[in-house]
Amino acid sequence: MKQRKKRKPVLFWILFILTALAALALFELGKNTLWGWALLLVLLIGWVLLRVKLLPGAGFLPRLGLFVGALVLIGLLFKLSGPPERRVPAVAGNKPAVTDVITVAEGRLTGVRTADGAVEVYAGIPYAKPPVGELRWKEPQPPEPWEGVRACDAFAPMSMQPRNHPVMNSLMQIFGYHTYQFSLTDNWVEAMSEDSLYLNIWKPAGDASGLPVLFYIHGGSMTSGRLTKWPIAGFGQPSYSEYNGEALARQGIVVVNCAYRLGVFGFLADEALAAESPNGTTGNYGLLDQIRALEWVRDNIAAFGGDPARVTIAGESAGASCVNALCVSPLSRGLFTRAIAESSGITAKTPYHSFRPLAEALETGAAIRAEFGAADLTALRAVPAEKLLTTKHSNDSLTVDGWAIAEQPYLSYEKGENHETALLQGFNVHEADFFCMTTRVDAEDYVEKLKKLYGDGAEAAAAAFPPAEQVPYYKYMIDAGGTAKGSFDACVSAAWFAYSHYNWARLLTKQGVPVYTYYFTKDNNGLGSNHAGELPYFYGNLDKHPKNYDAADAALSKQMMQYYVNFIKTGDPNGEGLPAWPTAAEAPDQVLELGAEIRPIPDPYLALYPLIDDFMEAP
User: Is pTM, for the whole model, over 0.90?
Assistant: First the structure.
């Protein structure tokens, strides 16, 4: 009688290899700890031994049970070995050189030097008391003094904000930013805390005095690094590489940025909070944090070689809206001279975003109190920070509180009660593409979808930008698309972003204040000319992700940086070797294109601005 030939476990090996590859990819994308990796390998080896050595002739059910058990254990291990939180080092590399001791109002501190010794970085300097406990939703208070020498060698935790699982962030870096790098040394995530009111300083190494200062305010919709409906890592924290201040410090500028309260912690409005405030304020705590940080800079920046009388404020996206608010806040007068605003502003009579009426803000605040069952402020302050983050109500806007912002910003400009003595500003060609990714727009519903932005001018807007699909280079797999999607994205870009800069320039030109407006159009392998795509060019950080940029990008960045440096130092971006950049008064219908060429061109949205004007005036 013939002996039955044993079948080879082909199906097992196919399932094992696919599962093992998926698990390894998941642990890499999830930034799991090294001990998690080690146990994963042990688990995979154990699975093979059990199947091949102990259960070679087992039936279907035992084999199925082994497979399901392995999947459960892999999932459990993935969850248990997730990345820990860690503060981001101020300077890359092991044991960077420590700076000399610097004395500020609160005590003595040291920073660290870059590898070449050319730049000193001081990270995690407190500019206010931690806004926790009884200080949650109160005006920021000056920081407490400390004893000894404080080591400021790592960025403080970022402010409380929604954030994705590390796997989602990794996928965004792969398919969106193209910045992902395989590594076994990045098995951690950036620390986050309600105690986040700290600032960071980059300065040229050595003794210096009288240097111009750039004070940068990060974006992120005032809630997080949120570009779409998903929070995206990077934009909502001061440690983000794209606006690192090292390159500008090499040009003789002292660069400062800070964290500020975000979302429900930074922009909650509540009648009881206004009643307990000595200033009657509520709803603008994040903006008040920025003002407190500017006060700290005024009092202490000379110790780092900066001139408190030569401070330029700058910001991108929501940060630019905050710059606009600082320009009209009665509390920030005398704290800066010039302003830089990238891709946002709140000069419209009814801003499309980043601003809301106080009544609306108070209504949202009442809904949040009800959401968490808080009968009074004591109960609301007792809600854990992590739980507050789960609120379903958005707090992503500034408001007229009568203290930090006295009135609608455009009214202050009409009265000449703004502070900036010069403005460098601009927007990108594909500003709205990320924001509109989930919206499909076809020729048949194009006009209807434009009505929210242009009202009765929707048909005229559609005529100015006839239905057209997206440019292939900026058409993404997950975009809803449509036969009119490209035109729709352009019209949204005009309304949400470009119009605020057009109106800002118009208001300042009437005052005789010089305004320089750019239009960024450069394609690349990173963010391209999407929202925030210009940041690494202006801040000289293309080298942080060199695979995304080529020699043409490097040449453009060099010129853009020089415009930036000239403006920060003198209030005029023009200089030797640079194409002339006219002011809005000299060329009211033109913007300076920053792309494959640098040249003045007609503003691409000139036909749409009058339609938005009419929409703003409509009852």
Answer: yes
